[in-house]
């Protein structure tokens, strides 16, 4: 599949690597803020969220949670987790030490786009499409988690505001009561003063 860039979309860029390919940008919570990250940066910064060989996303919120630990292998240098079934059968599991593609190849890059027509079109291979979908799923899960946290914080703020409102109402009632008592005392003092004459 070949996609052409829209001139209007070229104003966006990845806020980590400054990539300016708007087709591959994802809204993503990054360093305490929402940012646009390219597919490569989403995958590079979330190595434990997907299998780097088949690009299947590990969604701990879904019913299909990671199966037993023996079916996954963690890279010895980073938190990348690969399905044991995705590894070539020539390796004897679990006696070998696994290095993910990012750690084993210094020049490795996720989502390495092939360009044609002088860079004006993007050629998507099946592997690139899997990577793009994987990054989109990771970004979606991260945004859902951020929304859940924001919802919890908002609900807490509402509870705090209601409590503050109740306290303010009680304080106003106390002030009104004290003012009424003070007025009665003042009237009593005035009555006492006039009756003494």
Automatic annotation (TrEMBL):
Record carries keyword Ribonucleoprotein: no
Disordered: region residues: 178-197
InterPro entries reported for this sequence: Zinc_finger_PHD-type_CS (IPR019786), Znf_FYVE_PHD (IPR011011), Znf_RING/FYVE/PHD (IPR013083)
Domain of life: Eukaryota
The species this protein was found in: Sesamum alatum
Metal-binding recorded as keyword: yes
Comp. bias (Acidic residues): 184-197
Entry keywords, A to Z: Metal-binding, Zinc, Zinc-finger
Any one Gene Ontology molecular-function term assigned to this protein's record: zinc ion binding
Protein name: Uncharacterized protein
SUPFAM superfamilies reported for this sequence: FYVE/PHD zinc finger
């Amino acid at each position: 599949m070949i996609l052409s860039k829209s001139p209007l979309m070229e104003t966006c860029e990845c806020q980590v690597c400054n990539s300016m390919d708007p087709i591959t940008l994802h809204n993503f919570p990054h360093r305490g803020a929402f940012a646009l990250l390219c597919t490569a940066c989403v995958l590079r910064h979330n190595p434990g969220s997907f299998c780097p060989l088949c690009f299947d996303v590990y969604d701990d919120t879904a019913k299909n949670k990671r199966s037993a630990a023996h079916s996954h292998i963690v890279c010895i240098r980073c938190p990348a987790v690969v399905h044991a079934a995705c590894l070539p059968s020539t390796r004897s599991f679990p006696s070998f030490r696994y290095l993910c593609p990012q750690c084993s190849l210094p020049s490795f890059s996720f989502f390495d786009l092939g360009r044609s027509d002088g860079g004006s079109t993007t050629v998507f291979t099946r592997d690139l499409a899997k990577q793009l979908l994987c990054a989109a799923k990771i970004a979606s899960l991260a945004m859902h988690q951020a929304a859940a946290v924001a919802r919890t914080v908002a609900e807490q703020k509402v509870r705090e505001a209601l409590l503050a409102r109740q306290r303010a109402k009680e304080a106003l009632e106390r002030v009104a009561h004290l003012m009424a008592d003070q007025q009665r005392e003042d009237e009593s003092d005035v009555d006492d003063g006039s009756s003494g004459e």
